[in-house]
Amino acid sequence: MEAERRTVLIVDDDADFLDQVCPRLAADGFQVVRAEGQAAAEDMLRAGTAYDVAVVDLMMEHADSGFVLCHHLKKAAPGRPVILVTGVTAETGLEFDAATGEERRWVRADAMLAKPIRYEQLRREIARLLG
């Protein structure tokens, strides 16, 4: 899929994750806007930063930062897709996903990916959600 210079907002407090994913998205033709945590992303939203799809980590400054940010993103732009990425299962051993419609409505994300994620997996979800 040609990226058509679509913009990906990627939010994570893990600089290594951002340093790995952002250049690959840019190499695939996307504009990339990166925010190092919920607070930085909230500042960008208030400033009117444009994006076509958001990739948001679940646990950042607070354990629920990703949920809160997803809620704010969807409230501001209900039709814009959000992908929630999380290392909860790897860190705790607890299974966590949004498999049912009810769970997705509560989580407010259009897709969930478990860390560690493969870039191809993320790229495929972005392509699917952008159509």
Helix content: 40-55%
The gyration radius over C-alpha positions equals 14 Å
> What's the architecture, going by CATH?
3-Layer(aba) Sandwich
**Domain module count:** 1
Structural commentary:
The mean pLDDT is 85. It is built from six helices and five strands, in the order E-H-E-H-E-H-E-H-H-E-H. The protein has 131 residues and is of the alpha/beta class. Helix 1 links the parallel strand 1 (7-11) and strand 2. It has a five-stranded parallel β-sheet, sandwiched between helices. Helices cover 44% and strands 18% of the residues. The protein has a single domain (7-130), classed as Rossmann fold (3-Layer(aba) Sandwich), CATH 3.40.50.2300. Helix 2 (38-46) runs parallel beside helix 3.
Topology:
Blueprint: E1 7-11, H1 15-27, E2 31-35, H2 38-46, E3 53-57, H3 65-76, E4 82-86, H4 88-92, H5 101-107, E5 111-114, H6 119-130
Parallel strand pairs: 1-2, 1-3, 3-4, 4-5
Describe the structure in brief.
With about 130 residues, the chain is of the alpha/beta class. The protein contains 6 helices and 5 strands; from the N terminus they run E-H-E-H-E-H-E-H-H-E-H.
Key attributes of the depicted protein:
Rossmann fold; alpha/beta; five-stranded parallel beta sheet; globular; single chain; 131 residues
